[in-house]
Write a structure and sequence with these properties.
Chain A: Keywords: 4Fe-4S, Iron, Iron-sulfur, Metal-binding. The structure holds 2 protein chains of 2 kinds. Chain A is α+β, with helices and mostly antiparallel strands. Chain A has a single domain, classed as Alpha-Beta Plaits (2-Layer Sandwich). Chain A starts with a strand and ends in a 28-residue tail after the last helix. Chain B has a domain of 202 residues: Transmembrane di-heme cytochromes, Chain C (Fumarate Reductase Cytochrome B subunit). Helices cover 66% and strands 3% of the residues of chain B. Chain B is elongated and about 90 Å long. Classes of the chains: A alpha+beta, B mainly alpha. At the A-B interface, strand 2, strand 3, helix 2, helix 3 and helix 6 of A face helix 2, strand 1, helix 3, helix 4 and helix 7 of B.
Amino acid sequence: MARMKFYCDAERCIECNGCVTACKNANEVPMGVNRRRVVTIKDGEPGERSLSVACMHCSDAPCQAVCPVDCFTTTKDGIVLHNKDTCIGCGYCFYACPFGAPQFPSDGAFSSRGKMDKCTFCAGGPEEADNSPEEFRKYGSNRIAEGKLPLCAEMCSTKALLAGDANIVADIYRKRVVNRAASALVSSSSLQQTGFQPTVVPPELEGKATATE
Amino acid sequence: MNKVLLLLCLLVVVPGVQAADQTAAPPPLAAQNVPSPGVDLWNEIRGRDGTDTGQIRTQVQGVDTGVLINKQGQDWREYRMEKLIPNAAIVLGLVALAIIVFRLVRGKIPIRAGRSDHKIKRFSTLQRYVHWTTAILFVALAITGMVLMFGRHIVIPVFGAEIGGTLTYLFKRIHDFAGPAFAVSLVVLVITFMKGNMPKLLDLKWLAKGGGLFGDKHVSAECYNAGEKGWYWIAAIVGAFVVVSGLVLDFPNFEQGRNVMTWYHWIHSIAGVVIMSGAMGHIYMGTVAMEGAFEAMATGYCDANWAKEHHDLWYEEMKDQAVPADSIEQAKGDGLLDHSR
């Protein structure tokens, strides 16, 4: 069974915020809700790197563990979804999440928290019918049901943001890392130019990821 | 073993042999140390010791948006799931058990001399209104707070996620709105009941004798005994912790970050369990534990013999002001009762 994952390649991310825009466009999230964001560290210094971060769809999700109403479910593809009918807006998932993924639209008096909103891996909600108007209103698009991967990764111009089955994502990234190590190794004459093949892609995985080399 | 030794020998000898005829050939590949750019990056993102993240920037406006990985969330998760929930259940369960055991051992505490025909004014109308406002808000907050803490294990399995979620949502809203009201009423309560609740030397004697809880001997006490004074100060001090931390959690619009809120949640939850434990004892003592206790807060008047037995020093002060029980009933009927007294 597939286990869906995001991975952001910091060596490739150029902080264009295209993923953020794609996410907002695909899911039509309300103002103030940022399912995805790009963070740059060492901005303007040597070693500057950017990373795009959203819900990482953890295997042992802290949000799921601490939720007082048990509103989270992990789908068979390993996507962590939450039910907005059950959610009470207490913010406990927001305290526990290391990535800052849960977002709360301000709701009512004293800007108390409304129902939580977070990245759904473009898989809609757990309870509404796939691609129904109710589902879109509550959770945004359901590209997974259409056989597509999340729009943020699909739109990434440098293919820094990878989304898909963990094995395929890991395979793509492993090839990149080996290639980079090899190029660093022979910085004067590139091994890549001489036909260096770090790995052989298994035929069953060929062309199945969102991005290829 | 022999193979290992052989390998070691080769490792030592072979480079030496190579060095001899190696003049133009490039150095062996394995000898180069290739730094991984990922190592420093992930150390910086995790905020490990000796790393410098430099200036962090993000286009997304908001609190803590520049934090990529917040490690404190895991500490809070472990605290809530593995420490708070089981230990709170144990503490509250033990208090309930202690009350049941005390009831079985001691039974209901009667007025030994029987009821007298005179009553003494114990609480003013203002005090009673303040007390009951605080009490109702407190019970609402305690029940809704316990639902937030234990609800997943009780409410959701019993009612299902659909109804349980809606019910918990309602309870959470009650908790949010009763909280600030409780903050106000607690401040008024602390001021209203301050007179007579200052600790005195006499209280040590009362405590040393166990407050007369066990055995038949009564211990001298003024208007409030050390137990009542203790509850007053628990309500005031622990209550202040609950209220302040609760307000920090209740109003997320002042840009306090996640870590601030988890720290205040530690304070709020621990202080909440302490004050709920105290309240269980107070509610038991004030209602069914002894004859004549509840009517003092319900009507404002206590029985003269009850005062004599439980608050003897206060009774000596007040016995001249005792009024016949019938006259109170009558005055109430006529609407002549002096509430301001």
